[in-house]
Amino acid sequence: MHKLIFTALSVGCFFMAAAQPKGFKPVANVPAFQQSLSKSTASIQSIQSDFVQTKHLSLLADKITSKGKFYYRKEDKVRIEYTTPYQYLLVMNAGQIMVKDEQKTSKINTRNSKTMQSVNRIMIDCMRGTVFANTDFKVTAFESGSNYLLSLVPANETMKKMFRQIDVYLAKGSLDVDRLTMTEQGGDFTDMDFTKTQHNVALNEGLFKVR
Amino acid sequence: MRDCLKFASLACLLFLAACSNPYKHLQPAQASSSAMRYQPHLTKELYRCVVDGRVLFKKFHLSGLLLFKTFEDGSTRVVFQNEMGFSFFDFKWDKEDHFEVVSIIPQLDKPALVKTLQKDMNLLLMKNLDVKTEQTYRQGKALFQRFTLEKGYAYYISDSNQLVRIENAGKSKVITITFSGKHSDAAMPEALLFRHHKAHFTIQLKQIVPDAE
Prior knowledge:
- The complex is a heterodimer of chains A (211) and B (213).
- With 211 residues, chain A is of the alpha+beta class.
- Chain A is 25% helix and 43% strand.
- The termini of chain B are far apart.
């Protein structure tokens, strides 16, 4: 009987350890962490940073890299501008999404689509640090010596179709988002690494115009 | 009056007959080598991809990146993803050109569409061509090297020993692929345009040179 309990516990521990990202341990006091995150993001009116996006194609053992600039303004304005090796622009503002490739501009009213609302919401929450309040995902917090990691697993079928998991890496000191990793169901994943992050820079309203 | 009507009807019929078969005036010819010399030998190529078309009265527009990659085992993969890294589809051909859909989003998972995209890639990459059926024709300066497909033909059209165009046709044209910047027989072009005459959509590809690391 003791052997059985010991085996069950060992197996249980193994699976718990496997779910824990390498180099990270669960945050001991999640409410305290949530509080410091809320306090930090409350003081941020805007964010400007560079980013490098790397799409990892697991079955192809290959990757595709692009670069651009990221802008956020409270409460819900996001601008993601790809500059190399292609031009592409995504602007989110008050429930509207504008996408501009090299040939055409498209506008989407997220009110017409629950999926687009969820995508809009999770992007804003990731950058605002308000992911714990997002009901489309189950959030688990981990920490290492230098980072916090928020692992978001989809809680509904709509998001499950799009993502297996989203990981948000925050620098421990500043609580800035260092990296966003979006993993698809098939195993391919996209890293967005943010650098030269600046807070509360005056951002022109024109950056977030959806036209 | 009756003669006029007869003449007009005959003229209309002749006009329609001429329009319906664009290959009517091809003359049998000899080629110095098989069109298979134009088959691209690629390791990895990345393109900006823009798809425009219409379904009934509704227009659609899709953009992203198209990655071609060949592996040591002779297999080829073609992956289409959007600019933010989200995959639309992943197609595979093994070394014997057997086709497989590795993954595809539900919105594009329609048999007719998959078949069309498969055919586009087959034509471009010169896969699944029965070389025993190759025949050569000439029209003016252009050389038409034709392969028989399950339905219709694939034409590889060259001028002065340079491939200028690929066409798929039966009684009328189905797909036309035009390109520029094909710097050698075995190279992939720098830019391509796939025009689907019956399905009413186009695919534009523009080669991306990745940033040096």
